[in-house]
Amino acid sequence: MSKCPGSYINIGKEARDLLYKGYGQQPPVHFHQQFIDINCDLSCDVTCRIKEIVPGLGTAFRLIAPYSGKVELQYLHDYAAITAGTGVIANASRGYDPMISFSGVVGSTQVFLGTDIVFNISARAFNRIDAGLSLRFPFLEASLTLNDKLDTLRASCYHTVNPLTQTAVAAELKHGFSTSYTSITMGTQQAISTSTLVKARVDTKGKLGALIQQKCLQKLYLSIAGELEFRRNSRNSLDWIPKIGMTFSMRP
């Protein structure tokens, strides 16, 4: 049996990265500017990780400006991992609230389950309660998670078609218990060269998206993403709302 993957965020990570990573999903609080009819949103995500301070014990620092910042301490065992952290999270009326977080996973690389909890100390309430299960087979990676304080069910799958060209497909089914609304998102990706990756996605909410990622330097990546959202107006005809985003990232 293989070792535990080490973190709750690994549950459904492959499908989530294909469908959403690089598409410019903004956190709830971010820098916003409006120029005539153009809206501009800016945020910065920085992560610094030290894998092992001592054997089995690591630490990490993450800053999402201006949304949140936190420090985490992780204990990693062969078949279990526990992460505890503290930090601040932005509040529109009070500035920043202190919070504590806890996550844990148990299992192996093939089958593992976990939970992720964030508690807001000032509000004395849970900001996040998530739980998930991951199954990995040679031909398919699947996951089932409960998010939004267990109010949203997500089922996702990911399949690698050709590892040499990074060709892969993914799909996600999302159902909200309180809203009784269900949506499906499907996407694909392929490398057209050693330094260029293209992705596309579509969902049942009327959104079409495409992305191109270019490796500029050895560790610097540039992603440009576009999205079209179709909505019905009062005259029962379709309006389309275009969006475009740009992301720079540095990877070790």
UniProtKB/TrEMBL annotation:
Gene3D superfamilies: Porin. It comes from the Eukaryota. Coiled coil: none annotated. One of its GO terms (cellular component) is mitochondrial outer membrane. Pfam families: Porin_3. One of its GO terms (molecular function) is voltage-gated monoatomic anion channel activity. InterPro entries: Porin_dom_sf (IPR023614), Porin_Euk (IPR001925), Porin_Euk/Tom40 (IPR027246). CDD domains: Porin3_VDAC. Belongs to the eukaryotic mitochondrial porin (TC 1.B.8.1) family. This is Mitochondrial outer membrane protein porin of 36 kDa-like isoform X2. The lineage of its organism: Eukaryota, Viridiplantae, Streptophyta, Embryophyta, Tracheophyta. The gene is LOC115741468.
